Amino acid sequence: MPPDTRPPYSGTNRKLVLALDVGTTYSGISYCILDPGQVPEVKGVTKFPAQEHISGASKIPTVLYYNQAGEVCAAGAETMRDGIQDMAEDEGWIKVEWFKLHIRPKSDVSSHVTSNIPPLPPGRTAVSVLADFLKYLYQCGKAFIEETHINGEALWRMLEPTIDYVITHPNGWEGYQQSQIRNAVVLAKMIPDTPNGHARVTFVTEGEASLHFCIESGLMSGNMALKEGEGVIVVDAGGGTIDISSYQVSKQDGSKQTFREVITPACHFFGSVFVSVNARIFLKKLLEDSIYLEDLDHIVDRFDKVTKLRFRVDTQTQYIKFGATRDNDPLAQIRNGQLKLAGTDVAEFFESSIKCILKAVAEINTNLYGIKHVVLVGGFSASDWLYTKVKDALGAKGLAVLRPEYHINKAVSDGAVTFFLGRSVESRIAKFAYGIRCGIAYSEENPEHRARKESRYNAVDGSFKLIHFEVLVPKGTALRESTEISNSDYTYMVKTRGAQQVVRIPIRAYRGINEDPEWEDNDPENYLQLCTIVVDERHLDFLPALSQKTDGSLGLYWSVPLTFIVSFGDTEMRAQVAWLDKGVEKRSPSQIIYDPNDV
To answer: For the whole model, what pTM was predicted?
Structure first.
């Protein structure tokens, strides 16, 4: 909600909320110190170690340098110091960038992504590299607060043990990616590896964080003010991904608005880094017979840092200044240390990203949701060429395209803090059809069953059953954070009482086009296991409630009806298991385990 309508903090103790936006190419930090009785204020870290002479910088490169021993030698703003590249070359340091993309869902097999992600350092995992960078961001936040607040060092010592972290991630990331990020936070020693420690980490998608930034910055007021039933599309164009999110005002209560997500959020790997990837492909071919081919990395780097950002008109010749006046190669369009490019060629480097945005917006039924505005945020939206092309194309369809005048680089991190302070999204759309595999009694009269007769199995109770996909949440369902999805048809059965002390309930998803998924053999490629709900022996209080049954052919077995309860409406999935003990419902906390081979 906007700062002027935000209520004072009602807690009794001072707290620090620290939001970390680890982008593919650039990262940012925002925070809020919660004082009892005071209206919270969102602030950003605007000065970083090694950039002490630069004030107001809100983003730093998501880059690390490792030495041959695997130790971090430079990170973030430190990688921009004068002479750092020469030092790295002399010392044999390894530059690591775009490492965030190594955590992306396995379902993304786009060739332009997989073939262009730089490798990780030898012996390091994506989680360990992320942990190193999170540790660096943590130190940057610490240094800034200690320096800019009265009695900053004492203030940090008081707040540090209970910091609440809000960490952003692309729209398309699921529970497995969140678990990897949380593991990195633990590895960075920012929280203890305990349930209470884990609870101090909250996740929010970059799209939803951007919506909260738009609300916080006043974009949803004045001429842009939305009425109940009207909607907005938020396009977060970042370094690696372009996130598309659509929301509609579901409730208007004075100046306070509540939104609902109206379509499944999308995540496309067509961020600004792929403009540079396209430029590299073009330049490599242009320089294939030139002595300057060996300078390709440097030329692309100069394009990325200067030419790409300044590009505005496709009818103007563009230049990449990379060398001295003695550097000339007419056949390669190089003169006086500058490589000349036609504006139309540079425009082509942007084309896949622009088409991605336009196609994604075109697929949304804007009339159905009262959408008349598209808000463009994220570092890539600073490109005037991208903004102009998107604005002109969507304007012709009656959509007004806006972008914040200031601090578009801070949209995600500032929005993440705002999200923590007061959530404005009341419901989210299920991305997949979520469900479980369960055994149903085999029926010879059912043709679907007969077709799968060879797949039936003999259950513990002696009956023949078939594995069936039972939908818990259909794809596209609007889910509130408070919504609990339960299944009371699950029966926990063991052959010998006490032999199995762990209950495991796999949660699966279907992301195909079948509206009523039921049998996994109909579309096997589109079923996947998301995670497993696990209740370990320390929580199996229901064991005394197991009722004894006897089957003539298989003998004694034990069973108890269980209800497992899953919440999909929050930004992170949560689960519990419930059962009746002498007529009284009991609930057990459950652990959710993600297997990287299943996602």
So the answer is: 0.89
